[in-house]
Design a protein that fits this description.
By secondary structure, this protein is of the alpha+beta class. The chain has one domain: Alpha-D-Glucose-1,6-Bisphosphate, Chain A, domain 4 (2-Layer Sandwich), CATH 3.30.530.20. Helix content is 24%, strand content 41%. Strand 4 (54-66) and strand 5 form a beta hairpin. A 7-stranded antiparallel sheet has the order 1-7-6-5-4-3-2, with helices on one face. The protein has helices at 14-21, 107-115, 118-137; strands at residues 2-10, 34-39, 44-51, 54-66, 70-75, 81-91, 94-103.
Length: 154
C-alpha cells in the first residue's frame, strides 16, 4: 500500500474550502486525470479517470463526513484506495487542507511510478490546482452540509 500525505494553505475561509471539496462532480476542474465523478447519493461516488494512459473506473463510499472538518472515503470496486481530507482553520480567511491518500499500485508501471514519487507530485499538483480554483472563484460552486457517520455507511 502506498500512502501520500500533502497539505496546502488556501486563502479562503474553512467553510468555503470544505464546501467546494464536497462538490465532488467539480473534481475534473482541478484534478489532473479525473474525467468525471458522479455522486449517486449522499455517500456513493462513481469515478472515471485516466491512470497511466488507461481509463479506469471505480466506485467509492464516503465513510465519514463532518462539516468544515473532514471527509473520508474508501473504494468499493476497482483499484483499492482510501483517504481522508481534513480542513484546519488558520485564520478568518485561511485554511489548511490536508489530503492523505492510500492506494495499492497495480502492475509494474504504477509500482515504478510510486517508487519514483510520482504519486506525491500528482497530489501536490492537484492541491495547487484546488487552491487556484477556489481562490480565483472566491466562493464554492455549491455545498452539502450534511454529516456522514461511518457506522451508517454501506
Amino acid at each position: 500500500m502506498t500512502t501520500v500525505t500533502k497539505s496546502i494553505d488556501v486563502n479562503v475561509p474553512v467553510r468555503t474550502a470544505y464546501d467546494q471539496w464536497t462538490q465532488f462532480e467539480s473534481f475534473p476542474q482541478f484534478m489532473e486525470g479525473v474525467k468525471s465523478v458522479t455522486q449517486t447519493d449522499n455517500t456513493h461516488l462513481h469515478w472515471v479517470a485516466d491512470v497511466n494512459g488507461k481509463t479506469e473506473e471505480w466506485d467509492a463510499v464516503i465513510t465519514e463526513q463532518v462539516p468544515d472538518e473532514r471527509v473520508a472515503w474508501k473504494s468499493t470496486s476497482g483499484q483499492p484506495n482510501s483517504g481522508v481530507v481534513t480542513f484546519h482553520r488558520l485564520g478568518q480567511d485561511e485554511t489548511r487542507v490536508t489530503v492523505q491518500l492510500d492506494w495499492q499500485p497495480q502492475g509494474i508501471t504504477e509500482k515504478a511510478g510510486s517508487a519514483l514519487g510520482f504519486d506525491d507530485r500528482q497530489v501536490e499538483q492537484d492541491l495547487e490546482n484546488f487552491k487556484n480554483f477556489i481562490e480565483s472563484r472566491g466562493a464554492p460552486t455549491g455545498a452539502w452540509r450534511g454529516s456522514v457517520d461511518q457506522t451508517h455507511t454501506h
